């Protein structure tokens, strides 16, 4: 594989379905071209940043490196379609898309719901939902697709419970989330290119506009009510800003965690010594959860745009040029992680960047950690045995994703 071929990996959704080849490409770039110019037909050129130190430096300087106007990698056609929506005032525009001071003010609207005090209140419900999912797993008769039948449902139930959505709407939210993040995947995407992606957003906006109206008319004390009735400088959020907030929480808040849970179990199956170690010492669950997050890195990239001429690791970047921050690469950086391709449930320190850093640090990081710990705390003591029952399959993506199929055979101690 040449350096140029490795660079084109970032614009190939199918590249993320082959973990071995993906990491070969990323390792090559870290060694030979850590700040690499990528020019691929159909995409506006960008610089791929693959080393941990460089990603961290960019994320911590939010005045030089801006989220707007290009917060993530998209085709030029999709960028154009979304620019049209922005001009009309109908585009998805969440805190991911914003910079300070607007970002700081809007982030504060939901921040209290993800602080430690709120997490302690939610913990009992998270544990209950984890137990219900493991109970369901026990009913599958010794075989299931863990990714589709367990991992995707559990964090979805948690986050939509937090928002206060009715359980009857959960299947709809699951489908729309998979269509949104799996737009490049033949199985999960809606298809239709930019128009298909836009139609998914329109369906999400329609749902959450209705929710906003309901919560403004009858607040119910949940996170959805908090967002619907928030005021900034004395004015309520406009409907699209409120809907964008919901979409961020309802989609990113569960898809990333489900990918980590599925990928975490797959890693334990492939590393039975670490499975035994974690069973023998449940006190390792906090570090094991961090290692699962590092290992999976469910968010593949975010992008930043230079607000002035600068350089990254000696490479000149002009004002207005964009960089892609590769989290799977940063989280395997040999300069930061001892033996980075070894799955180690006791890894400490573990300075992964899967949640980002700086002002855009993941709002739901504490909740994700709690969900992962709770699920494996419930699952591992009840598993007598577990093994793969076929080949795992990854989602084709360039943004968020992980395993979409994890066929397993298992024996539960209570079955």
UniProtKB/TrEMBL annotation:
Alphabetically ordered keywords of this record: Heme, Iron, Metal-binding, Monooxygenase, Oxidoreductase
GO biological process: cholesterol catabolic process
Gene3D superfamilies noted in UniProt: Cytochrome P450
One Pfam family named in its UniProt record: p450
Highest taxon in the source lineage: Bacteria
PROSITE patterns: CYTOCHROME_P450
InterPro entries, sorted: Cyt_P450 (IPR001128), Cyt_P450_B (IPR002397), Cyt_P450_CS (IPR017972), Cyt_P450_sf (IPR036396)
Entry coiled-coil feature ranges: none
A molecular-function term among this protein's GO annotations: cholest-4-en-3-one 26-monooxygenase activity
Keyword Heme included in the entry's annotation: yes
Protein family: Belongs to the cytochrome P450 family.
Protein name according to UniProt: Cytochrome P450
């Amino acid at each position: 594989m040449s350096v140029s071929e490795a660079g084109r990996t970032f614009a190939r959704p199918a590249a993320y379905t082959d973990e071995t080849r993906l990491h070969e490409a990323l390792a090559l770039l870290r060694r030979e071209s850590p700040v690499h110019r990528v020019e691929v037909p159909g995409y506006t050129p960008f610089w791929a940043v693959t080393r941990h130190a460089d990603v961290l430096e960019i994320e911590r300087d939010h005045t030089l490196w801006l989220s707007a106007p290009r917060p993530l990698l998209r085709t030029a056609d999709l960028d154009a379609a979304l620019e049209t929506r922005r001009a009309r005032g109908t585009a998805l525009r969440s805190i991911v898309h914003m910079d300070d001071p607007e970002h700081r003010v809007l982030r504060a609207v939901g921040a209290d719901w993800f602080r430690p005090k709120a997490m302690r209140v939610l913990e009992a419900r998270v544990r209950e939902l984890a137990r219900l999912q493991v109970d369901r797993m026990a009913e599958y008769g010794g075989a299931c697709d863990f990714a589709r039948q367990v991992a995707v449902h559990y964090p979805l139930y948690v986050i939509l419970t937090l928002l206060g959505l009715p359980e009857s709407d959960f299947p709809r939210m699951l489908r729309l989330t998979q269509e949104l993040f799996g737009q490049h995947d033949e199985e999960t995407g809606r298809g239709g290119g930019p128009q298909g992606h836009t139609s998914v957003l329109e369906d999400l906006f329609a749902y959450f506009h209705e929710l906003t109206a309901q919560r403004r008319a009858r607040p119910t004390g949940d996170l959805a009510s908090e967002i619907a009735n928030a005021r900034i400088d004395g004015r309520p959020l406009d409907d699209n800003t409120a809907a964008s907030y919901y979409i961020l929480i309802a989609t990113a808040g569960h898809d990333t965690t489900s990918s980590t849970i599925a990928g975490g179990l797959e890693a334990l199956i492939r590393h039975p010594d670490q499975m035994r170690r974690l069973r023998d010492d449940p006190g390792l669950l906090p570090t094991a959860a961090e290692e699962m997050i590092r290992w999976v890195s469910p968010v593949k990239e975010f992008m930043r745009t230079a607000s002035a001429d600068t350089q990254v690791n000696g490479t000149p970047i002009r004002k207005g040029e964009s960089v892609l921050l590769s989290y799977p690469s940063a989280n395997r950086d040999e300069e930061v992680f001892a033996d980075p391709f070894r799955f180690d449930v006791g890894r400490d320190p573990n300075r992964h960047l899967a949640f980002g850093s700086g002002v855009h640090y993941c709002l739901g990081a504490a909740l994700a950690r709690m969900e992962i710990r709770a699920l494996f705390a419930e699952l591992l003591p009840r598993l007598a045995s577990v093994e793969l029952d076929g080949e795992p399959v990854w989602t084709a993506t360039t943004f968020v994703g992980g395993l979409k199929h994890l066929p397993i055979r298992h024996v539960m101690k209570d079955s």
